C-alpha cells in the first residue's frame, strides 16, 4: 500500500501528451524567423518550436500539447508565410 504522501503526489500529477507537428514553409532566413516569432511565442500550448532554414523544405517543427496542425498552419499564415504541401 502507498503512503499518504505518495498517493497525493500521484493524484497531483498531470499527464501532458505532446505532439510534434512538422510543416514545410517558406520561412527562409533569420529575419523571417524573427518575423514569425511573436506569432508563435504568444500561443498557449506551444512548448517548443524551431525552423530549419538550412534545408530546401524549411521545416517548422512545433511541439504542442493542445494545438492541431490546422491551428499551427493558421498561425504561420497569419504571420505572412506559406505552408508548402
Describe this structure in words.
The protein has 85 residues and is of the alpha+beta class. A hairpin with a 7-residue loop joins strand 2 and strand 3.
Net shape: globular
Cα gyration radius (Å): 17 Å
Structural class: alpha+beta
CATH C-level? Alpha Beta
CATH architecture: 2-Layer Sandwich
Main sheet specs: 4 strands, antiparallel
Task: Compute the separation of the termini in Å.
Answer: 54 Å
Which strand order spans the largest sheet, edge to edge or round the barrel?
A: 2-3-1-4
Which blocks of ≥5 consecutive residues have pLDDT under 50?
A: 1-8
Number of distinct beta strands: 4
**Helical region count?**
3
Q: What keywords describe this structure?
A:
single chain; 85 residues; alpha+beta; Alpha-Beta Plaits; four-stranded antiparallel beta sheet; 3 helices; 4 strands; 25% strand; disordered N terminus
Summarize the structure.
With 85 residues, the chain is α+β, with helices and mostly antiparallel strands. It is built from 3 helices and 4 strands; from the N terminus they run αβαββαβ. The protein has one domain (15-84): Alpha-Beta Plaits.
Question: Could you outline the blueprint of secondary structure elements for this entry?
Answer:
Blueprint: H1 4-12, E1 19-25, H2 30-41, E2 46-51, E3 59-64, H3 69-78, E4 83-84
Antiparallel strand pairs: 1-3, 1-4, 2-3
